[in-house]
Design a protein that fits this description.
The protein is of the alpha+beta class and 706 residues long. The chain is elongated and about 120 Å long. The longest helix has 23 residues. Strand 9 and strand 10 form a beta hairpin. The protein starts with a strand and ends in a 19-residue tail after the last strand. Helix 2 runs parallel beside helix 5, helix 7 crosses helix 8 and helix 14 packs antiparallel against helix 15. It has 15 helices and 29 strands. The chain has an eight-stranded antiparallel sheet, sandwiched between helices. Strands 1-2-3-4-6-5 form a six-stranded mixed sheet. A five-stranded mixed sheet has the order 11-12-13-17-16.
């Protein structure tokens, strides 16, 4: 019934197992991957024929985490997994990026990769295992996939590079780097680092690439015993060469002239006109317009790429290393806590920073348990930023991915929570785009946070690098344009401070790149990053010494843990009253730390005074403000020191004999009282004798009345 093929190996101290033939047998390729006790199932399916008129490769990757994998039930009302979490979306992109370039050229059949986390041992992150399972499933499926690939995570712990660190080890790592590639070279890099040098980062990439070569061998071993019959390789359309010759003669000069226009929209208009001219001619001849579109795209690509390689000049007349003009502005919005407008060439981001309290932290329900995040960065890419009218909706994978890249770049430079107890949210509105809006987000967010008074360890800047490679000829491009990204072979983003790299992301559109090209790109990116930091400093070179006057001021105080319930009160009654009376926002942590946030310093002081009164213990001999809350024949109960009550006996109300309590006080009266101590039952004894009710000061005892 089952034809099970299983392969395993020891990898970085744990057993990696790949199995096929037992689960999901109707998929074109399915692999159950196990590392430690983490288990991921990946299934691959593809249509046999492409949809007519399709001019792109419709690949979709879905990574999904099931709560049962960690022995948990999903939170929320519906109690089932619903929309993808941010982690699932980012991991789907992580898998997609290295496999997409490795499908055979011309393959346009709809292909779907689904990776499902079935078990999570809380030691080995399933994202790395899912990518390996996807590569293995594609390799055995028969679809024209030119892999396999493999991948690894590299951390730096106590100064040592560690491959596939556990989740516990990652908590203290100064590097989180994911590298994927083939036997020949690297396909994809994603990282977050604490100001690592270019040399150390390259060393980590090489270490990861070396470590997973044995995994590639394991996948090949599995495929040799279980792979399906390979699908026919896509064939070049009939008449492609003749169509190429015809279009070159017809519009190549027009396309070259169009790419001599430096302004983006004017250039796009001219390129569009050249293409329209060609298509009209093909339609008039009853030619194959579908074929003509594909050939025109290749012709355009070749013209731009060869021009850069031949002349060293780019579309906008820059050389390969020059960064576009930069304008950095801060404080552009009057009521925001911090704001910046960062413009680099025809790319522009308006970034706004908002400071909040602990109650504003994001609560994330993950397989590892509930987690809280105090730094949020959201990236928005409206269609007007590229001069288009398009669909508006919730953020897609691209927006989430670009926002996370900027988040990784900035997070290592944030101050410790103990030193700056704010929740920080940055929102990047991309208002113009012509290449690398994610790096504009890094630069603008750094400026906006410093404008808000966030004491970053150092300003952070980012730059996007590109690559044009034809045979042995290549050119590494600094600060790429949108067209250079689209027509090039690499999108290599590097962010960091003047001291080192904080984030690196690389995607390759060819089969791989060498360490030599990576080294050149890193060195060139460092020069560009330092230049951008210099331009940013013209707007704001360091964080403001105080948080914005529009932001809440946070005052921190500590109370004994046993007093937390007194501050909260039954059902939260006391803390709600405190918020209503003072107007301050109050957060209480489990260790007794209380954070009081208010834009008005007087409100914060009032809240602090009231909380102190609630938790303070009465001291004999101290004088307090009080309020009469109950009248009895034998005396009056006075509320003082927060919720505490004490008795002023009728004999302690004033010198001499008092006939009736109401002769001295009535319910609701404000009085000054002195603590005499405690009775045998621990109740507080108070006196009003010899206390000036106006000033609260003690006076000389008066003569007793008869």
């Amino acid at each position: 019934m089952f034809n099970i093929v299983r392969k395993e190996m020891q990898w970085e101290g744990r057993t990696l197992t790949l199995e096929t033939g037992r689960i999901a047998r109707q998929a074109h390729g399915s692999v159950l991957a196990t590392y430690g006790d983490t288990v991921v199932l990946c299934a691959v399916t593809a249509e046999r024929t492409p949809r007519p008129g399709l001019d792109f490769f419709p690949l979709t990757v879905h990574y999904q985490e099931k709560a049962y994998a960690a022995g948990r039930i999903p939170g929320g009302f519906f109690k089932r997994e619903a929309r993808p979490s941010e982690k699932e979306t980012l991991t789907s992109r992580l898998i997609d990026r290295p496999i997409r370039p490795l499908f055979a050229p011309g393959f346009k059949c709809e292909t779907q990769v689904i990776a499902t986390v079935l078990s999570h041992d809380m030691e080995n992150d399933p994202d790395m295992l899912a990518m390996i399972a996807a590569s293995a499933a594609l390799t055995i499926s028969g679809v024209p996939f030119l892999g396999p690939i493999a991948n690894a995570r590299v951390g730096e712990i106590d100064g040592e590079l560690v491959v596939n660190p556990t989740l516990e080890q990652m908590a203290t790592s100064t590097l989180d780097l994911v590298v994927a590639g083939t036997t020949e070279g690297v396909m994809m890099v994603e990282s977050e680092a604490h100001e690592l040098s270019e040399e150390r980062m390259l060393e980590a990439v090489v270490k990861g690439h070396t470590s997973f070569q044995a995994v590639i061998d394991l996948i090949i071993d599995l495929a040799e015993d279980s792979a399906k019959e390979p699908w026919p390789a896509p064939q070049a359309p009939a008449g492609q060469d003749a169509m190429r010759a015809k279009l070159e003669a017809m519009v190549s000069d027009d396309i070259k002239a169009a790419y001599g226009i430096t302004e983006k929209l004017a250039r796009q208009t001219a390129v569009g006109a050249a293409k329209a001219k060609a298509m009209e001619a093909i339609e008039a001849e009853d030619g194959d317009t579908g074929l003509a579109k594909g050939v025109l795209k290749d012709l355009e690509k070749d013209i731009v790429r060869n021009s850069i390689l031949d002349t060293g000049k780019r579309i906008d007349e820059r050389d390969t290393k020059t960064v576009r003009p930069i304008v950095s502005e801060v404080g552009v919005l009057p009521l925001s806590h911090g704001s910046a407008l960062f413009t680099r060439g025809e790319t522009q981001g308006l970034i706004v920073c908002t400071l909040g309290t602990g109650s504003d932290e994001q609560i994330m329900d993950r397989l590892e348990g509930e987690m809280r995040e105090r730094f949020l960065l959201h990236y928005n890419f409206p269609p007007y930023s590229v001069g288009e009218a398009g669909r508006m909706g919730p953020p897609g994978r691209r927006e989430i991915g670009h926002g996370k890249l900027a988040w990784r770049a900035l997070r290592p430079m944030l101050p410790a929570h103990e030193d700056f107890p704010y929740t920080i949210r940055c929102v990047s509105e991309i208002t113009e785009s012509n290449g690398s809006s994610s790096m504009a987000t890094v630069c603008g967010s750094s400026l906006a946070m410093m404008d808000a008074g966030v004491p970053l360890k150092a300003p952070v800047a980012g730059i996007a690098m590109g690559l044009i490679k034809e045979g042995d000829r290549y050119a590494v491009l600094s600060d790429i344009l949108g067209d250079e990204d689209h027509l090039g072979d690499m999108d290599f983003k590097v962010a960091g401070s003047e001291n080192g790299i904080t984030s690196l992301q690389m995607d390759i559109k060819i089969t791989s790149i060498t360490a030599e090209i990576m080294q050149i790109a890193l060195e060139q990116a460092k020069d560009g990053r330092l230049h951008i930091l210099g331009e940013m400093s013209k707007g704001l070179g360091h964080a403001r010494t105080e948080v914005s006057s529009n932001a809440p001021r946070i005052t921190t105080m500590k109370v004994p843990r046993e007093k937390i319930r007194d501050v909260i009160g039954s059902g939260g009654k006391v803390i709600r009253e405190l918020v209503e009376l003072t107007g301050a926002k109050i957060d209480i942590e489990d260790d007794g730390t209380i954070k009081i946030a208010a834009t008005d310093p007087a409100a914060a002081e009032d809240a602090q005074r009231r909380i102190h009164a609630i938790v303070a213990e009465p001291e004999a001999g101290m004088i307090y403000d009080g309020k009469v809350v109950k009248i009895m024949d034998f005396g009056a109960f006075v509320n003082f020191l927060g919720p505490k009550d004490g008795l002023v006996h009728i004999s302690e109300m004033r010198p001499g004999r008092v006939r009736s309590v109401t002769d001295v006080v009535n319910e609701g009266d404000a009085v000054k009282v002195k603590c005499l101590g405690f009775d045998d039952r621990g109740k507080v004894r108070l006196t009003m004798k010899n206390i000036d009710q106006e000033t609260g000061e003690e006076v000389e005892p008066a003569a007793e009345e008869g």
